[in-house]
């Protein structure tokens, strides 16, 4: 089912790219396919076979909650959607995007907070154990991890058309705050491991180090985008 | 090549870039040399409480984020050709020394997050750790002050 859903997402994106006559950067398409691949790798296959091992679990969690969201956010699906929809439908979509709840949810601080709160709840309550024993709950938790991670990454990078975008410093601070919360959680798992799981020390260190790498990649992309946009601003305001 | 007009705020950006990179690099050196290579510090020493965990996480996130931000600002300053090596190095040293002093005083001694080394008398290590921080910060401040009167190169 997971593979089917990821395959459908990949097919829809490819369909949209071919439907649009204007060129669409191939790197974005590749990024979307990579994101879909991460989903499949995290939710099927060997990583899920040993579900009481925190090391394997954490590898899947990193793929699902951080790597896949980054790849999917870089693919700019909303921008693509707005390009291929007929004018009327596109206008309706952008009206939805301007609505107050969407605006609140896509604020980088709110989105990061949601992602962090969900992760803390998962690892510091009985939810981890409950999800390990119930496939349905596991799927629900996985979808939540993916969606909140995706929302947070997209809100920080702000690549899609957004009517109210925060400045680069605010977005960098939101990212750093999320990174700090992730670090603290990883160390707290090491200090006070959840009962019933093996490979806790390795899992906690993987969460800490892997989280650092992906967070830094997001920070580098964020600041690179600032550097490029500064050039555009200076060219536009420079006296002729 | 014609020199572009100095943009207002670019001197401040140069100093901010140096401070961020200095503090960030010092944090990275601390992590790589003392945690990973020497194993003097620990991933978690099982002695520090919640305050230690939180402060450690904040510090780790802040130093790495500062490094990335500092590099981006430096790239922008260089592109504007308002880079001054003296002022920039002054800011880097001030940031690095300030971080080292903070780490030595607040983290090690006040919060007791972790110590420089375990199983040895700490007095010499602490003096060297914090003293070197203060010294580097002073040299940085001196360079910044000297660079102030020089025209930007």
List keywords for this structure.
heterodimer, A: mainly alpha, 82% helix, B: 153 residues, 0% strand
Write the layout of secondary structure elements.
The complex is a heterodimer of chains A (240) and B (153).
Chain A: H1 2-19, H2 26-43, H3 46-49, H4 54-74, H5 77-84, H6 87-98, H7 100-105, H8 108-124, H9 127-133, H10 135-157, H11 168-191, H12 200-237
Helix pairs in contact in A: 1-2, 1-5, 2-4, 4-10, 4-12, 5-6, 8-10, 8-11, 9-10, 10-11, 11-12
Chain B: H1 10-37, H2 50-79, H3 85-110, H4 123-149
Q: How would you characterize this protein structure?
A:
- The complex is a heterodimer of chains A (240) and B (153).
- Chain A is mostly helical.
- Chain A has one domain (2-237).
- Chain A contains twelve helices and no strands.
- Chain A has helices at residues 2-19, 26-43, 46-49, 54-74, 77-84, 87-98, 100-105, 108-124, 127-133, 135-157, 168-191, 200-237.
- Chain A is globular and about 65 Å long.
- The termini of chain A are far apart.
- Chain B has 153 residues and is mainly alpha-helical.
- Chain B has one domain.
- Chain B is 73% helix and 0% strand.
- Chain B contains four helices and no strands.
- The two termini of chain B are 14 Å apart.
- The chains are: A mainly alpha (240), B mainly alpha (153).
- The A-B interface holds A 172, 175-177, 179-184, 187-188, 190-191, 205, 208, 212, 215-216, 219-220, 223-224, 226-227, 230-231 and B 43-44, 46, 53-54, 56-58, 60-62, 64-65, 68-69, 71-72, 75-76, 79.
Low-confidence regions of chain B: none
Q: Indicate the overall shape of chain B.
A: elongated
In whole angstroms, the N-to-C terminal distance of chain A is 59 Å
Largest interface: A-B, 27 and 20 residues
**Biggest sheet architecture of chain B:** none
* Overall average pLDDT of chain B: 77
In N-to-C order, the SSE pattern of chain B is HHHH
Count of DSSP H/I helices of chain A: 12
Weakly predicted, low-confidence segments of chain A: none
Summarize the amount of helix of chain B as a percent range. Answer: over 70%
Shape of chain A: globular
Q: Provide the β-strand percentage band of chain B.
A: under 5%
